[in-house]
Structure prediction request, 71 residues.
Amino acid sequence: MINLKNMNEEEIKIFTKDNKVITLKELFERKEEARKQLASLPFEEKIKILISLQELACSWGEKQDVIIWRL
Prediction:
């Protein structure tokens, strides 16, 4: 078992889905950058994204109680 408490962010390596290796620090930096980009989107675009997530939950997640907004 790996003890993560004694490791710093530069020592922890993560394999991405395209087989690249990044550090935990890079992961959090990329997450913060993505959050800033999403925050800067226009409100209408955020609503479109929400609707696509509702559709995904309904079809892929087989959730029958999901309400999909209509524009």
Observations:
- The chain has two domains: 1-40, 43-71.
- The CA atoms of residues 56 and 62 lie 9 Å apart.
- Residues 43-71 form one domain.
